[in-house]
Structures are given as C-alpha cells and as structure tokens.
Amino acid sequence: MSLNDLVEAYALDPTPEGLHDLQAGIMAAPRYDPLLSVSRAVVPLLRAGKHREIVDLIRSWMPGALLSPSAHGYLAKALTELGDAEAGRVEAKFSRLALDSIAASGDGSEEEPCSVLRIEDEYDILRASSQRPTAQRQVSDERGQFDVHTLEDGGEVWFRLLWLAPSAAAQEDEIADDPQN
Question: How many CB atoms lie within 10 A of CB 91?
C-alpha cells in the first residue's frame, strides 16, 4: 500500500491497525525526522507574514511530516491566509486527526503510553489538552524508549518514542528465545 493509500484508509476508518501501518509508512518516508521542530522553523516566518514560505517549507518536509499536528496546523493557517480556505480546512482536519491519533494510541499512563512520531508531537498533545509540563525524563525498558513528562499537578504523561521502539521482528525473536515459552 502506498503512503497516500495508508493516509486515506486511516482517515476513513481510524483503527489501531491502520494507525500502526500509517506510522510505519511515515517513519519509512525519505524526509522523516523525529527531531523535526516545525514551530522553531515556522514561527519566525509566521511573525513576518511569510505565508507562501511557510507552505513551501512544510510541503518540502512531506511526506515525513505527515501526522504532525504542528505541521498541519501551521499549513492550515498559512493556506487560509493565502486565500485557499478549502485547503486550509483540509489541513486543519489533518491537524485534528494527528492529535486524535496520538490521543487514541494510549491514555498517557506508564501502562498505556501515547505513541508519537516526533518529539514535538508530545508538546502538541500536552498543549492541546492544556497540560503544562514542569519536567521531562527518558525511560527505557523492554517495551522501548519513553519520554515521561511531569505535570504541574504532579501527574505524569508517558510517550512511546516510536522511532526508538524495538521492531516487531526483534520482539518475536526474543519471545522465541525465551526458555519459558
């Protein structure tokens, strides 16, 4: 299935399996970068009113920036400012879909962390849910790597770093090698 097919399939029927396939497709995309900081690059252009440059920059990151709430949100604003309200609405829907996909991937607990494609996605979901982190730490265990944000109220939100997750094949090998199985 092509990445476009995966996007369409997930948008029409947002299942956990469809999300997993789409995330894998995005991580395999040529311009995928888990360290991409959309806001750092776009905010100065936004302040300068350079909406065409914003559109060009974000589109240059695609398809690697697919499902980035920030990328789709800034793209929606820039397109709307350029007079393309319909394209802006589509990108706003993708921004919402991106946030919903993160929220649907887990409840943010240690047992069910939210899965993210990029570090910036963590901050997008925290901002969207009006949660303010006061500290952040990384945790590693047999399930993978996690960013754990401590919130103002003392609670925690856990995020699974998908680009550092053990592959399914490696997990299957570990299970097969386990003498208890």
Answer: 23
